[in-house]
Amino acid sequence: MAAGRGGRRGLVPLLAFLGVMAYALSMAVVTPALPLIQEGLGTSAAGAAWALTAMMLSAAVATPVIGRLGDLLGPRPVLLVVLAISTAGMVVAASAGSLGPMLAGRVLAGIGGGVFPLAYTIVREVFPPERTASAVGLMSSMLGLGGALSWCIAGPIIDHLGWRWLLWVPVLGLVPGLVLAWWIVPAVGGGKSARIDWWGAVLFAAWLVAALTALTQGMEWGWTSPGVIGLLAAAVVLAVVWLVVEGRVEEPLVDLRLMRRRAIWTANAASLLSGYALMAGGLLFPLLVQLPEETGFGFGGTATQAALLQLPASAGMTVAGMTAGLLDRWVGSRVVLMAGAVLTGAGYAYVALAHEAMWQLYVGGVVRGVGIGLAYAAVANLVMAAVAAGETGAVTGVNTLVRTVGASLGTQASAVIVAASGAAEGGFTLGFAVSAAVMGAVLVLALLAPRRSLC
């Protein structure tokens, strides 16, 4: 049986990409359907929005924990459990007749975020070193591609089949992914006798949920509301307690000493800012396209036109992620990150200055997409190169978490910038300019990163 499974290792890339894409779709697919979910479940706009927020919070908490479990137990058994739970969650959400079951299903589906660190661990164990960077780059670009595809398929599915069928789409990837995982993923790594830091996991989940809830609800509740201030205060206190606990246990959930390595903290900071840049554009571009022409700067486009604008950028992101592996062998991940920062910043700077015609948005968007594809691939390869194979899941789990936080910040900050301007043209110009400046900071971080791995 082991020999047979070893002969199927050539299918591991297909499984990794299928699992990551299915998760990306499940995360993004509810966004186009939020108004219909609100109507179909008889809930408020805020209640429907929690269908997205609940999964994001669950994924943020679960991802680093699952990455650590993958290092301890081996990625294969953990991946099988994660895919099974995520699939069950998507089925519950798609079948839900009220908001409660919908949110419960989305929370379970969010555990699928653990496929990222597990996929990185599997790729590192199975692929030869010269192919690892390319595989990591392609997987890193799947999140953006999944988001773009969700918008493109949303219209036809909703129009002809109904919004519930949109929630069934990720299941079509998760079910075969579960079967393939059982069939082809080799039993590699793991087998350590280390204990799991459950107290660290509980405290980590507590402060992270408090902080992310405050960020995601700030626009609706008000940034100075008692709820937001209370959650932020609780997050700070719980984070301090968590840091104290993690500094004292022998085998922490997150090894703070690892996080202090220059290759890792610079890559994590770059991930935070790159996540901001990805989702800032994910909000600003569609809003600008769909604003009425009467505003003098909007295009009066449909949701489908806004989605089509994202496709070339997503294709560029995917191609750049694949190319990043070849570039990594030639010049190293540090230079790839520098190139990604420059291209993404240039794309945003261009549309900040020129957004009178759709072709300008396409040009700026494609340049931005290529840049983010390079940056995402580079940061993942930087953190993997800085640690031993047995620590891959833990560090890539934290890196994915940081990127998720950055994405949340990008969405919220850009929405605040546009709202503060009264949805005027200056708000969009400022939003694009801020994103360009953010990528300037990524360039500085790339210059600070070590030239080669420390391991």
Topology of helices and strands:
Layout: H1 2-7, H2 12-28, H3 34-41, H4 45-73, H5 75-95, H6 99-110, H7 115-126, H8 129-140, H9 142-160, H10 163-184, H11 198-221, H12 226-248, H13 256-259, H14 262-290, H15 303-331, H16 333-353, H17 358-385, H18 392-420, H19 425-448
Helix pairs in contact: 2-7, 2-9, 2-10, 3-4, 4-5, 4-6, 4-7, 4-11, 4-18, 5-6, 5-7, 5-10, 7-8, 7-18, 8-15, 8-17, 9-10, 9-15, 11-12, 11-18, 14-15, 14-17, 14-18, 14-19, 15-16, 15-17, 16-17, 16-19, 17-18, 18-19
Please describe what this structure looks like.
- This protein is mainly alpha-helical.
- It has 3 domains: about 1-185, Up-down Bundle (Growth Hormone, Chain: A); about 195-250; about 255-455, Growth Hormone, Chain: A (Up-down Bundle).
- The protein has 19 helices and no strands.
- The longest helix has 29 residues, at about 45-75.
- The two termini are about 35 Å apart.
- Mean pLDDT is about 85; it is low at about 1-5.
List keywords for this structure.
about 450 residues; Growth Hormone, Chain: A; 19 helices; disordered N terminus
The oligomerization state is single chain
The tally of beta strands, per DSSP, is 0
Number of helices: 19
Structural class: mainly alpha
Q: Residue-averaged pLDDT, rounded?
A: 85
Q: State the helicity in percent bands.
A: over 70%
Remind me, CATH topology of the largest domain? Growth Hormone, Chain: A
Distance between the termini: 34 Å
Order of helices and strands: HHHHHHHHHHHHHHHHHHH
Task: State the shape.
Answer: globular
What is the CATH homologous superfamily assignment of the largest domain? Answer: MFS general substrate transporter like domains
β-strand amount: under 5%
- What ranges have pLDDT less than 50 throughout 5 or more consecutive residues? 1-7
Provide the number of structural domains.
3
Characterize the biggest β-sheet.
Answer: none
Radius of gyration: 21 Å
By CATH reckoning, the class of the largest domain would read Mainly Alpha
Transmembrane segments: 12-34, 46-66, 78-97, 103-123, 135-158, 164-184, 196-215, 227-245, 265-289, 309-328, 335-353, 365-389, 401-424, 430-449
Domain Major facilitator superfamily (MFS) profile: 12-452
Membrane topology: Multi-pass membrane protein
Organism: Actinomadura rugatobispora
